[in-house]
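[audit] Reproducing an earlier prediction to check determinism. Same input, same settings, fresh worker. If the tokens differ from the archived copy the diff job will pick it up downstream; this log only records the rerun itself.
[audit] input (336 residues):
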Amino acid sequence: MNRPAIVLAMEPSRTEHILPEDVLHRLDRIGRLLDAQPLQHFDDTRAKRLLAEAEILITGWGAPYVGPGVLAQAPKLKLVAHAAGTVKGIIDAGVFNAGIAVSHAADANAVPVAEFTLAAIIFAGKQVFRFRDLYVGDRNRDRTHPMQREAIGNYRRTVGIIGASRIGRRVIDLLKPFDYRVLLCDPTIGADQAFAMGTTKVELDDLLQQSDIVSVHAPSLPSTRHMIDATKLALMKDGATLINTARGALIDEGALLAALKTGRIDAIIDVTDPEIPGSESAFYDLPNVFLTPHIAGAIGLERNRLGEMAADEAERFIKGEPLLYGLTLESLENTA
């Protein structure tokens, strides 16, 4: 079997768990790993030497842009396997037009996001953060005991999923063992498909009005920017929770902060727009906001899946088997 030349390109500080020693050894077994140190630039002497031989390029977070200049330097290139989620901003349309196969590890990154979302839904339904704040603040149970009689908890609550993306679908699957009523809003999914997934298809307004917990999983596209605005937020139930582990731009941040300041709804926010809120942002201080620094996706050991998936795709390609996670230029346009 031909052992094609493999080149790595990503930010080295992020390769510890994406490309551990066992994955590097595997790549060198199924192909010829030309250098275990990833490229950070495509315009230096080492890059030009490696790209001239590269048949498979494995990219990841922090990879330099794979554009026309790279294609000119890499005449043998046949596959770009992205060991991360979206390839937008990394891979030029010319790569697809040149007939080079492109694969990504978005499915691997979807696993921890869905797990994080499940935990967020359960904690939101049980008002865990509110209980914690009162208990820690009072150091007694005078206020937490009466809360247990409120209409909270996760039994027969309604969860609204916005977007039947790969993450949205995983969340729906993870919710199946629980006693939730699950609503789904996605214009690409029919009522029968939604029913087969164990959900009920509804329009966005209905989902927001009926759901106790709303979780956003739509792709970030020009058409979905600020799809959740002040008018939509006003439809949410008093005491409902909005969870966003997708993209910050899906929600009008000013409108969300205004709604949160009233105390009428809660939010669990892992992504914002801009990516890091200004130091004066109320997201940091509001008691009804649980803010995390974009950690729902693969971190630490969870990154192993990304490198393993890229290696799996490289091996399939070398064996002449179909890629499981291949992308086309058309499909890329509708992904996050």
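[audit] rerun output stored. Observation attached for the diff report: The longest strand covers residues 5-9.
[audit] end
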